[in-house]
């Protein structure tokens, strides 16, 4: 099982699936971490998407050939798969493998994420996966900021 995390929603689902299946878990991480600030991450991810940039990965799966099926977990960023998913798919020979998407999103659905998977891994068997709406980090930040503003708290 390979997953990318930001707010923790995908991590929770991925860990539950890993426990249920007795699967290995590999966290997909860029070599240079995304900013801690949500809005900075959104801007960077949008820029990377628009430029077709695939950020270098911190690590790859050494023994990917030993897996027949990969549950690929990721959140939707800007109506698509995060740039590191494109990097992961490009960095591994997944020919003939079955990919099961496990996708969390903030309410706007899957966007073009499935076509990203099909385009960047054309030789895999892409099967119907699992998706769920999870709490939006942006909405949480905005609600907390509004509350702090009402309190007159410095930010």
From TrEMBL:
Residues 6-149 form the Flavodoxin-like domain. Keywords: Flavoprotein, FMN. It comes from the Bacteria. It holds the Pfam family Flavodoxin_4. Signal peptide: none annotated. One of its GO terms (molecular function) is FMN binding. The keyword Flavoprotein applies. This is Flavodoxin. It comes from Ensifer canadensis. The lineage of its organism: Bacteria, Pseudomonadati, Pseudomonadota, Alphaproteobacteria, Hyphomicrobiales.
